[in-house]
Amino acid sequence: MKHTLCIIKPDATRRALTGEILALIESQGLKIKALKWLHLSRKEAQDFYIVHKERPFYSELVEMMISHPVTIAVLEAPGAVEKYRNLMGATNPAQATAGTIRAKYAISMGENSVHGSDSLENAQKEISYFFSQREIF
How many C-beta atoms surround the C-beta of residue 2 within 10 A? Predict the structure, then answer.
């Protein structure tokens, strides 16, 4: 079994979609192994998304991520990273496959409702950013 990180972003938590998104995740065979609700500080958002620092959307991303609390989860399944990324759908909701989280809930490319790790290596780093081993069941 492998793990991946899921963040339900402020645009979705603000619209009270956390339960619907988590239910969709579980219905696709991804098990929730850890869960928390946080209001990220500016520094936490900046540090978490540091890989995008040189990209033109970085400041907007940080502002969006600190605008409202987020729900953060560790998901488990065989091939968890790929399975969750497929369920998330394309970053641009207009290009997301019907039935994916972003096709159903995203507002725009910037407010695309969810984040997911893009590799197993990054999943491990991202999970340890938010969770201790003791918090993962």
Answer: 15
Domains: count for the chain: 1
Catalytic residue among 3, 39, 52, 115: 115
Full strand arrangement of the beta sheet holding 114-116: 31-38, 70-77, 2-8, 114-116
Q: What is the CATH number of the domain that holds 128?
A: 3.30.70.141
115 is catalytic: yes
Range of the domain at 9: 2-135
pLDDT in tens, the chain (137 residues): 999 999 999 999 999 999 999 999 999 999 999 999 999 999 999 999 999 999 999 999 999 999 999 999 999 999 999 999 999 999 999 999 999 999 999 999 999 999 999 999 999 999 999 999 999 99
